[in-house]
Amino acid sequence: MHVPILVAPILELLAISAGQCVVDGTGGYGGHSAAMLAQLGDQGCLYVADRDPMAVDCLKTRFSQDARVSVFQETYAGFLENVKTPPENDKNVVYPKSVDRLLVDLGMSSMQLDDPIRGFGYLHDGPLDMRMNPSDEVSAADVLNTYSAQDLSDIFFRYGELHQNKILVQNILSFRRNCQISDTEQLRDLIKASYHFGKRPIMMRHFAQVFQALRIYVNREFEELETLIALLDSVMAEEGRVAFLTFHSQEDRLVKHGMRALPGWKMMTKHVVLADQDEVRENSRAKSAKLRVYSRKNS
Ligand SMILES: C[S@@+](CC[C@H](N)C(=O)[O-])C[C@H]1O[C@@H](n2cnc3c(N)ncnc32)[C@H](O)[C@@H]1O
């Protein structure tokens, strides 16, 4: 099961009231959605988006009996673009006119991470896929097997903060001259051959940085977030609020700087909200979670 993180502070800061229109942009397995639904009353509505068709199946099953919920297989940025400019060709799909409350809980769900077939986890053996939506064009294996040395280096630098990546890139290029890079084990071996790790935790950190870089690139995660921030002024209601749950420093920085550049919004707490020790003890994913909630300045 994916355990939702920081549920209590999210509910407190979003302060959802009955009848509002709420969007969960990263539905996952619906934990946050269910908690928000409980605040919505009979007349409220919850729009839940996820780009992953497996998560969408699960969300549709979970909320099939609740007429207040609509589930969309879309990226959250795509969903909000459709709120701003509703598509003309599909009259059956109705988007809200504006959004009172928006949540994005970024990154992967436990189910994505723990399923070896998806290729997200460096601890599992499986194909190097990493697409949250398997219909997207480019997988992690495509990137490793076809991108230039410069592009690979830029991806590891920008999305994994892996500054020393020259030998890793050279090793990838020489490996793929003879053989396709297709699974997580091959990538782990290439990383191991490219660095002198004194200690196991340092090796694990390098695995994490390389896998994170590929995942962020393959799923265009930063572009999604930038698009969402750019759309807030036009899609959120007058007294709208938006909550971002991030899991690494680059994501958090992107939110912090992106929101600072929006003059109409203010952060609702002085500092980011973190999980307490009890929550971290019960759910290790909560350790790196940071919550920022923003409201319109005039509300
Ligand atoms: C951390 S999980 C969310 C878990 C959820 N809050 C819950 O309580 O079950 C993140 C989910 O967001 C989805 N996701 C990630 N980026 C997305 C995007 N740009 N648009 C839509 N869904 C996205 C992933 O497929 C994954 O299912």
Please provide a written account of the structure:
- The protein is of the alpha/beta class and 299 residues long.
- It folds into 2 domains: 7-110 and 221-296, 3-Layer(aba) Sandwich (Rossmann fold); 137-218, Orthogonal Bundle (DNA polymerase, domain 1).
- Helices cover 45% and strands 14% of the residues.
- The chain has 13 helices and 7 strands.
- The chain has helices at residues 7-14, 31-37, 53-62, 76-84, 110-114, 140-146, 149-160, 166-178, 184-194, 200-218, 221-235, 249-260, 277-282, and strands at 21-24, 45-50, 69-73, 99-105, 236-246, 265-267, 290-296.
- Strands 3-2-1-4-5-7-6 form a 7-stranded mixed beta sheet, with helices on both faces.
- α8 crosses α9.
- The radius of gyration is 20 Å and the shape is globular.
- The model has no long low-confidence stretch (mean pLDDT 95).
- S-adenosylmethionine is lined by residues 2, 4, 25-26, 28-32, 49-52, 55, 75-76, 105, 107-109, 132, 224.
Write the layout of secondary structure elements.
Layout: H1 7-14, E1 21-24, H2 31-37, E2 45-50, H3 53-62, E3 69-73, H4 76-84, E4 99-105, H5 110-114, H6 140-146, H7 149-160, H8 166-178, H9 184-194, H10 200-218, H11 221-235, E5 236-246, H12 249-260, E6 265-267, H13 277-282, E7 290-296
Parallel strand pairs: 1-2, 1-4, 2-3, 4-5
Antiparallel strand pairs: 5-7, 6-7
Helix pairs in contact: 4-11, 7-10, 8-9, 11-12
The protein binds S-adenosylmethionine.
